[in-house]
Amino acid sequence: MIPKVGLQLDSPDDEMELVAILQEFARLKRQQVEVYFDGAPIGHDGSRNIGTVRAHFVRLGQTADNAIRARLNRMAKEAKNWIVVSSDREVQNSARTFHAQFISAEAFVKSLREARNTAPKANTSDKKISPAEVEEWLNIFREKKN
pTM to 2 decimals? Predict the structure, then answer.
């Protein structure tokens, strides 16, 4: 997923950069998001909430794909309420077995971009404040100070 969203795998912050992108997606779509990362060194593995995203850091010697399959197995019937994002055929087959929906990483990246592009834009127009308004505010602040 990391290179598919335009990030570099050799960046020391690639996981956190992806989490930030996923947080924005979760906010825009109002969806719960979990993400799995391979290769966490001993002592840095495990799961934790990072803002609105649940991140799972899978330790060296194990794979995120196996962790996703194990998560689906633990969810059992609840898996039907989830969408699994993976281009791995075995993970997709596991999703199918547990009646979870699934999409490829490429299709998800397209959804990410669409969510960003259709999000309401903040009003960034700067209103000019007249000198009279500045003076009025200064007077208000002076009164409160005294």
Answer: 0.77
